Amino acid sequence: MNIDKKQMMHWVQQIEKNSNANDHILEELIACKDQEVALYLYNIAAEARKKYYGRDVYVRGLIEISNYCKNDCYYCGIRRSNKQLKRYRLTLEEILKCCKDGYTLGFRTFVLQGGEDTFYSDEILCGLISSIKTAYSDCAVTLSLGEKSFDSYQAYFRAGADRYLLRHETANEEHYKKLHPDSMSFKKRKQCLWDLKKIGYQVGAGCMIGSPGQNTKNLVEDIRFLQKLKPSMIGVGPFLPHEDTPFHIYPKGDLTECLNMIALLRLLFPYVLLPSTTALGTLHPQGRELGIQAGANVVMPNLSPTSVRKLYALYDDKICTGEEAAECKDSLEKRIESVGYRVVTSRGDVYGFHKK
Ligand code: SAH
Known about the structure:
- The protein has 14 helices and nine strands.
- By secondary structure, the protein is α/β, with parallel strands linked by helices.
- The termini are far apart.
- S-adenosyl-L-homocysteine is lined by residues 75-76, 113, 115-116, 144-146, 166-167, 169, 208, 237, 239-240, 242, 279, 314-315.
């Protein structure tokens, strides 16, 4: 073994011990393409995760409530300017039916995700959240509906929402401007995350890996931002191009880089809830299993009605768009078990969380 490999493995041990590292070390490990070092990193990360969460993998039922969006992010397939896309919006009854089916299947967290659809007023959303919490009081409701005012976030929280996912997308302002039109604000996005924390949500931030214009330094900046924010959840997944966006010409994110990031995030944030994303499963047939083996501990099977699955197209070739919710969950469960982990159906709150 050459000295560089030994050095890198030593760094991995140090990160595991200190839950931190300097920028240079993080950059080297994020970009590391050596399979022996990478596998070592994943194994150490998997061990670290076992200390907090054992072999448990939490499931979240993802309900994609609408693909209308007022924003125009250059990477996203449901951006406002994509005129090719047929738009849909689920009714209250349809969403509640998804929850009902999901509950029967054992889901105890529902994630309501969508574009920034102005149709859903605060009143409608609060009504929806409290209907779900009344019907399924043992379930957590997670929202992933984009940027809102402090007061709106607070209203949803009071209506019973427990968690909020809002990826910061990038912690570098220049890079942010390459991914978003001028109408969107880097400061506002970050402010939203601080607001959500202040209100008391379990907050999820995160970013794409390999988004156009991103370099390894930016990923270290993402880590530094996350260290300040201290979120309960961190969602990362590869950038995947969508043919009807300005970014259709850019390549996919790199699998090894995604797995390296997952493993490093596990070592830096041992307590965190870290999903192995659908995007990772789209990038590689065993992507989600590999993510779990690199330290991820959450999967989010799709509970949306099959009739709309294909329309929630953030990127091309998204997997699981034809399966019923039950099939989707079963196949994921088998995949997780095949690599020695087990799917559990508890609420799966972040380590150390006390129920409100
Ligand atoms: N409107 C919500 C939900 C956005 S979709 C919000 O603003 O949070 C959820 C996530 O999908 C985004 O945060 C983004 O990081 C990711 N995403 C969007 N387009 C993508 C693409 N082309 N490839 C990979 N991930 C993408």
